[in-house]
Amino acid sequence: MVTSAGDEYAARPASVGRPNLTADLRITGAGGQPLPAGQVGELCFRSPQVAKGYWKDQDATKAAFADGWFRIGDLGYIDADGYVYVVDRLKDVVIRGGENVYCAEVEAVLFEHPAVADVTVIACPTRPWASGWAPSWCPAPAPAWHLMTFARSRRAVSPPSSARRPCT
Q1: Which of 10, 25, 111, 146 has its CA 20 to 30 A from that of 4?
Q2: What distance lies between CA 75 and its chain's CA centroid?
Q3: How far is 27 from 35, CA to CA, in rounded Å?
Q4: How far apart are CA 53 and CA 59, in angstroms?
Q5: pTM of this prediction?
C-alpha cells in the first residue's frame, strides 16, 4: 500500500513511504475519526488491492473493516509531505499513568545499551484500568537493575517492578 525506495528512502529512512497511487490512507483516532498530519493513530487503507474480508471469518472481517477501510492494527502518522511512519502495533501500546508508551520505543532505547544483544518489550495488564510493560533481553551480562536504570534515564515513565526479568 506504500512505497519507499531510492532517493525517497535515503531522504527518510524511518518512513515506510508514501501511499501508492491506487491506495487511500488515513489515520484514525480511538473513535474512528480521521486525524490530521503529525498525530499518531491507527493506519487504515482503502484500495482495490485490499481483500474484501477474511475467508469464512465474518467476525474478523467485521472487526477489521469499517466503511470500506481496512484497519491494519498498526499505529503511525503521516507527515506534512505525505510520508507514512509506523510507530508500533496497536496492541503493543501501554497506557501508563495516562501516557501512551510504545513498546518499540522502549526496545529502541534498550538496544542502545551495550549489554543488550536482543530485546523485546510486551504490554502486560497490571490493573483493570491500566497496563505496564515488561522487557525481556538476551544476553544480559549487566545486572537487571543497571538496565532498568538506563531505561529510566531515557524515558519519562518507570517500568513496573515485575519487569525486572532477563530471559535465560
Answers
A1: 111
A2: 5
A3: 6
A4: 10
A5: 0.61
18-19 and 24-28 beta bridge pairing:
unpaired
Contacts of 162 (CB under 8 A, 6+ apart): 124, 126, 132, 134
The cell numbers describing 11, all together, are: 531522504
Grid cell, residue 35, equals 486525524
Domains and CATH numbers, the chain: 2-90 (2.30.38.10), 97-163 (3.30.300.30)
Whole-number Å distance between alpha carbons of 90 and 134: 16
pLDDT one-digit tens code per residue, 110-161 = 878 777 777 777 666 666 555 565 666 565 566 677 777 777 777 534 544 4
Rounded Cα distance between 14 and 95, Å, is: 24
Q: Among 86, 97, 82, 168, which Cα is nearest to 133's? A: 97
Q: Percentage of residues in the chain with pLDDT exceeding 70?
A: 73
